[in-house]
Amino acid sequence: MTTSPLAPAAPATSAGFDIRRIGGRIGAEIHGLDLAGGLTPDTVTALNGALLEHKALVFRDQNLDDDGQLRFASLFGELTNAHPTVPAVDGRPQILPVDGDEGIRANHWHTDVTFVRTPPKASTLRALVVPPYGGNTLIANAAAAYRDLPEPLRELADRLWAVHTNAYDYAEPKNEKAAEHRRQFVSRRYRTAHPVVRVHPESGERGLFIGGFAQSLIGFGPAESRVLLGLLQSYVTRPENLVRISWNAGDLVLFDNRITQHYAPDDYGDLPRLLHRVTVAGDAPTAVDGAHSYVVEGDEAAHYTPVAA
């Protein structure tokens, strides 16, 4: 497996693929693999290593169907269901439709499903319909953000815990479809305490584990929480910590949900945009001192993720 910063991809290596970096701190395109054709255990191990290093992997022109996306995602672990509250694709309980036409526009920085105790390990997004302009996805490296913190702020962050929830004061929905999606999203209330600094279970890296579902800091009032979370979040979204994915229909992106955030700018008007999301089950985040996340309100979401069960 080789890494090349240059534009053309080099020939595939003995690991079966080549890596082309697309961002200075995050992101790589994978070349030389046909995801529909089946991957060897050695190739999966090498891909997992690339995921740990680059945080987000882009596979162009794969043109998988739903079954192919499910098979690929399952190579990295047991799958979750689509979402704790939002309906899945009909007949496909593990696939979440991300449909801009239905008001599902994730134009806020977040890590997937952090309002439950065991958020996904990894997420796959597959582009079915993309607009002719806009509709990109931004992905941020939360480990680089942590390293950017001044030492006194890092030391404070290491001790902080945040409460993540799916039920808070959202912006007014733009239409009835968006309003119905919001009602579904908050139909079961979850509040979970996670460490602000999460120790990655495989790499040991520390990353800022916050994002849009982190609404308050334990031990701080609402005003102080907003200021401190906003300050920490500003390091996550620094331009040098981001990669922008410009979609083509048939592309698939795999990203490490334990140490990234993502954002889909709402910049494509009324044009259609449809992605399918499949997520890999994860564990309970671990703090610097070894403590684990815990439920504040709600349940273990066992109907959603097998790890929680």
TrEMBL record:
- InterPro entries with a match to the protein in the record: AtsK-like, TauD-like_sf, TauD/TfdA-like
Keyword Oxidoreductase annotated: yes
Pfam families attached to this UniProt entry: TauD (PF02668)
Q: Name one GO cellular component term.
A: cytoplasm
Q: Which domain of life is it from?
A: Bacteria
This protein's cofactor list reads: Fe(2+)
Which regions form coiled coils? none
Q: Which residues form the TauD/TfdA-like domain?
A: 19-279
What Gene3D superfamilies would the database entry show? Clavaminate synthase-like
**Keyword vocabulary terms for this entry:** Dioxygenase, Iron, Metal-binding, Oxidoreductase
Q: Write out the GO MF terms.
A: 2-oxoglutarate-dependent dioxygenase activity; metal ion binding
Similarity section:
Belongs to the TfdA dioxygenase family.
The family database entries (PANTHER family) matched by this protein are listed as:
ALPHA-KETOGLUTARATE-DEPENDENT SULFATE ESTER DIOXYGENASE (PTHR30468:SF5), ALPHA-KETOGLUTARATE-DEPENDENT SULFONATE DIOXYGENASE (PTHR30468)
Q: Supply the name of the protein.
A: Taurine dioxygenase
Q: Which species does this protein come from?
A: Streptomyces roseolilacinus
Q: Which gene encodes it?
A: tauD
